Amino acid sequence: MMAQILILLKQSENRRLLVEYLKQYYEISVGNLTAQSKPASLLLNEPFDLCILDGVALTYLWEKIQARKQQEQPVFLPVLLITSHPDVKLITRNLWESIDELITKPIEKTELRVRVEMLLRSRRFSLQLDASLIRERKLNDLKSRFIAIASHEFRNPLNTILGFTRLLETKRNLSPTQQADFLQRIQKAARRMNVLLDDVLITIKSEANSLTLNPVAIALKLFCHNLIEEIKLSLDEPRTIDFVHEGEDNEVYFDQTLLQQILTNLLSNALKYSSSDSIVYFKVKIRPEAVVFQVQDQGIGISPQDQQKLFDAFYRATNVGNVPGTGLGLVIVKQAVDQYGGTISLTSEINVGTTFTVTLPLA
Ligand code: ADP
User: Fold this and answer.
1) 292 contacts 320 by C-beta, under 8 angstroms
2) Is 297's C-beta closer than 6 angstroms to any atom of ligand 1?
3) CATH, domain 4-107, list 3.40.50.720, 3.40.50.620, 3.30.300.130, 3.40.50.2300
4) Binding site membership of 270 for ligand 1 (Cβ less than 6 Å)
5) 215-361 topology per CATH
6) Does residue 206's CB lie within 6 angstroms of at least one atom of ligand 1?
7) Which of 201-210, 287-296, 335-344, 346-355 has the lowest mean pLDDT?
8) Contact of 8 with 54, CB cutoff 8 Å
9) 223 C-alpha to center of ligand 1: Å?
10) Which CATH architecture fits 140-207?
11) pTM (predicted TM-score)
């Protein structure tokens, strides 16, 4: 993006020359210093990367400039003063504090350009630094929340495993059915820990923007059929998933893992949060410009208040009862959808059902 420079100069001839020259390289806004100099002080509230001003503007506006610099911290907002030698002596300490660089008249073009570039470079560095600091902080935040929840979420299945292995070890007279039952519970708990771990790792990874897309040609209809079969296999009881497919079944290019994450999470949720005798509807519409996936259930629904926070990490709605979950599935879905430049929306009504719609553009 082109750097934006705000120019606040009293002297109109200087101003014109400066604007003429700099607008070849930068986006320029010019403040009006005549009259009450109000427009200039308004411009100081708008975004810019560098402010070039003269002694007059500095005298008028130094408080505003300092406030603006403060407000941008820790990001560096450079101010360049254009001055003549006699001015320099007149400038008081207060005014100095608002300035990062000065250039004396008559202005030499190359020198001006170099100074401007140096200041803008510092600005860019500090912007980058700030962005990575924010990302780092978000990631740290997520990690500490994970540690808090992990101790809680991991403990249940872990206790199950420990408990039943101890029983298997110590109880002499277990029937084969009991043994099989215990083993199944252990396996289920282990699987749950596996899912939890996967979810957390994916979330942290995609939060750190380290997921890279690897698009491959996918025959969508077949892909969805296989996915449904896979999900059904992982269920404790048989369920009906009504799959409808609209449009040409041409191959589409998507990252398999991401697509699988999106659909598996939505379908599992639809199954998890509805009664076992209800049907889950899964519709895929292939359009020339995008693919629309719709997952509809007749389950417990989501209240309007809960809908607002649904995509926050670890958030679970108040009506989940004892349905197990991590509150990470939809975070993963949202991140995957965002990576595609797609959209996700939902409509829901308590005790009636929920419909999630994901639209992924076909690049
Ligand atoms: P979880 O592992 O808890 O299912 P998700 O991130 O997948 O986590 O979903 C977050 C929350 O959104 C769930 O805890 C649940 O409250 C709500 N939710 C998601 N899908 C549905 C659905 N189909 N029906 C009702 N509630 C849902």
Assistant:
1) no
2) yes
3) 3.40.50.2300
4) yes
5) Heat Shock Protein 90 (3.30.565)
6) no
7) 201-210
8) yes
9) 24
10) Orthogonal Bundle (1.10)
11) 0.59
